[in-house]
Structures are given as structure tokens and as C-alpha cells.
């Protein structure tokens, strides 16, 4: 009989007694020597691994990326070098704050992380379904996440803490307005856009650099839940997004996104009125129009969730030749954070897990460590340089130098003059991008969320946040003030609108 059908222990010993443990007589105690019983119980006790510290609940599928337009004038990345070229990908979409068992329809941005398995190694574009983010310095990330997750005292999520953080960090406003719109509760995962969010570099064959932003636009059309529909779906089917994506792919209804880039030359960068590497800002699509690149299609469900999704590891550090980083400070922080998190979550050899492996065998001088499951370099040299192996450096991959001028290293205030306009773009979003219905829903969603602010600091937090809404748009602030039953704000003429250097200025008198 084929080995495939034989029931064996992990070490290959036949499992003859699968159902019953060895006992002293039919009604007596068990014998310690029933090794298979130990193996089953011990393995079960170790089934759970650490969940991701953020983005713990997610769904993923394999698919292909196909080039439809030529962008070789911007990048020499090989996956884009030919029309019609296909690259294998895996895309994982997730909520951010909830735990692994939390409901899919929570109000939250959604992660949108793509791994491209290219001939030059794996490229991970680890973005969200929003073009901006809450903070613009990585030092604030753990504070931000702590405020969104469970309160250490009562272990409940708390609107008070969530809005307390937002109100002290007005750079979050742009993302907060998107989060509070119905885009914060997308209908599953197929009906939302994805964004690289940061600025990245593209480098072409002539070694010329441009900066780019990536946009994946859903071909399924945008579809969102209203506040009440999302609330209802959380109890009716907490796993709605996973079910919806899985069943669509299983039935051959493959979801697709069109990839576009926005391109900014280094010259244009220096002439902009705002910092193009600030992830709380978008680039105007009028000035920097979307350029089509290709189509991403999901067409294969993972064959095992734990092996291929739970053990999946993305890292913004993973860029390939022709694509590189930008000076975006949040991106710079993320370059360190992800591999560090994965060494802790999955172990130091997490890149050897099949779903994380690149298309070809890698050779370097890293060896050993927990869970080494390759041949570990066999007997080859484990140091460099050496007189024995044939490995060589591929100098053609050398990265273009970046001129950093005579800059002085310091802890610069991220909200200093010229970096502190937190209000203009959210104002454009509120007045020009959203339609009447979306504006109404946004206000209602904010009111419902802020009604959860409780305790002795509640009025202080509400007024601090209303102050920021007022700078975005007076009507927005008034509607929310009325909805919350507090006096409408009149901060419009505040002298600190354009020059908010210190959070103490947000401690407003009530
Ligand atoms: C997951 C850190 C900002 C998108 C994670 C993980 C960490 C982390 C530690 C878990 C990684 C793992 O265990 O595999 C940070 C830090 C940030 C930051 C320190 C800012 C300083 C962002 C931003 C975006 C983003 C700006 C999107 C634009 C994601 C996504 C995942 C993730 C999509 C889940 C990846 C997956 O599906 O496995 N982040 N993050 N993060 N982050 Fe961030």
C-alpha cells in the first residue's frame, strides 16, 4: 500500500491503536509507555503560536500579477520588464486592532499586504486599504496601538483611550476621517482599494530615481457596510470577510485589482508645499495622475491556513532591484520592526518556511538557529571571504547613492512649521471627495464612536478633538458637537491653527 495512506507517528512508527490508550485491564489506569498518547497530547499543547502583535485576524490567497502597461522608463524591476509577464503573489488582508478571533466587520483600516515572488527575490508591499496613516514618526506607533487595543485595567476596548490619543495627535485626522467614514467598515475584503501608502523609490536602467505611490483599485467596485450593518454582521457572521473571500475564489469568481502608480520626480519633490514623505498626506491625483501598471488576481485559496497564512511573514524591508525606500520616517521604522517581530513570532529561520521562501535556493553565511530545516549549507564555508566556495557579489545590484547634503542629526519636531498642516487635506476630503450621503454617515459614525467617551476627562477629550474638527471644517465640528450635546466650538480664529508645535496647546479650556 502507498505510504500516503499509512497512519504513522511523527517518527514514522505505525499507529496501531489510534482510538484507545493502553490500560491495565479494561477499567484500570493507563500505562506511561503509550508513547502515541503522549505525542498527541504534547503536540496539541503546542499548537498555538504567537499571533501577530497587530493585524492578527486576516485572510489570504495566492494569485498572479500581470503587467498590462510599460513602466520600464521608471523602474528596471524585472517583474515589470515585459507586457503580459506574470508573477506569483500572495495577498493577505487583515484588521489591525482585533485579536485572531475578533470579528471581521469591526471599524478599522484593513491591512493589504502583497508578496511578489520575483526572479530577483521576494518583494513585499505591506500597505493598508487607506492611502494615509495615523502617525508620521515610528516612535509613536506603540503608543498609538496601545490606545486602540484593550485597556490594561478592565480589558475592554475604550473609546475614551482611542479618542484621547487622536485628540493629542492631530496628524491622525486625515486617517481618522477615512476610518470614521463607511470605508472603515468595508463589505468584506474584495470591495476595497489597497495602497502602499508610503512613498517608495523606483530606479530605472539609467540609474535614475523617481518617487512613487502604489494604488490597487478594486475591480469589484467599492462596497461598504453602514455602521448598523457592520454591527449586525459582527454577530451574524464574525468571519464574514474570510468566508466571502474564500467562497468567491472557490467558486471561480476571482477578485482583481488594477495596480497604478503615482510618480513624482526628485525635482518636483523639492518644490512641493508639503513634505511628500509624510504618510499622513496624499499626493494630488490632478498633479500626479494615476499611471496603470497591471492587474493582480487572486485565484487560489491556501491549502492550509496555519502553514500558509499564519506563518506568512511580510516585511517592508524586502524590496527588489529597481524599487527602493524613501525617506518616509514611518517606512524607515518599519524596515527594522517586521523582521524583528517575525524572529520572535516564528523563529529566526522564518524565511525557511515554504510560504516565505523565494523562488530559488539562497546561499549566504548565516547558519544554525532554532528550526533549521534546510541542509544548512551542508559542509560549505560559513564565513566570508574564504578560499573555498564560488559565491560572488553581484555588483550590478548596487543601490544608487542618495545625497543627504549637510544635514545635522537631531530629534527634530515632526510638527514644526511647514510640517504642521494637519487640516487642509482632511478638509478637502470632507468637502470635495465625500458626497452628501458619505458626509452624513461620517458625522453619524464619529458621533456614535465619541459617545463612548466616558469618565472625568471626557469633556476635555471631546473639546480637544472638536478643536481639530473645527480646523478641518466648521460645519463638521458643529454637527458633531450638536450630536454629542456639547457646546459648539468657536476656535476657528485660534492663532495656533497653522503653528501647533506642542501638544500642550491642545489642552484647551473647557
Ligand atoms: C503588521 C509594526 C505601520 C501595515 C505589523 C507587525 C508589526 C508591525 C510588528 C506584525 C508583523 C508580523 O508579526 O508578521 C508596524 C510599525 C509601524 C507600522 C512599527 C509604524 C512605525 C504600518 C503602516 C502600514 C502597516 C503604515 C500600512 C501602510 C501592516 C500590515 C500588517 C502589519 C498590512 C500585516 C501583515 C500581514 O498580513 O502579515 N506591523 N507597523 N503597518 N502592518 Fe504594520
Task: Please provide a written account of the structure.
Keywords: Heme, Hydrogen peroxide, Iron, Metal-binding, Oxidoreductase, Peroxidase. InterPro entries: Catalase, Catalase_3, Catalase_AS, Catalase_clade1/3, Catalase_core, Catalase_immune_responsive, Catalase_sf. This is catalase. Pfam families: Catalase, Catalase-rel. The chain is built from 13 helices and 10 strands. It is of the alpha+beta class. Strands 1, 2, 3, 4, 5, 6, 7, 8, 9 and 10 form a 10-stranded antiparallel β-sheet that branches. Strand 6 (200-203) and strand 7 (209-218) form a beta hairpin. Helix 11 crosses helix 13 and helix 12 runs antiparallel to helix 13. The model is unreliable at 492-510 (pLDDT under 50). The site of protoporphyrin IX containing FE has 28 residues, from strand 2, strand 3, strand 4 and helix 9. Protoporphyrin IX containing FE binds next to strand 2, strand 3, strand 4 and helix 9.
Strand content: 5-15%
Gyration radius (Cα, Å) is: 26 Å
What structural category characterises the helix and strand content?
A: alpha+beta
Described by the principal axes of the CA atoms, the overall outline is: globular
Mean pLDDT comes to 94
Low-confidence stretches: 492-510
The total count of strands amounts to 10
What proportion of the residues is helical, as a percent range?
A: 25-40%
Which small compounds were modeled alongside the protein? protoporphyrin IX containing FE
Largest sheet features: 10 strands, antiparallel
- How many helices? The count is 13
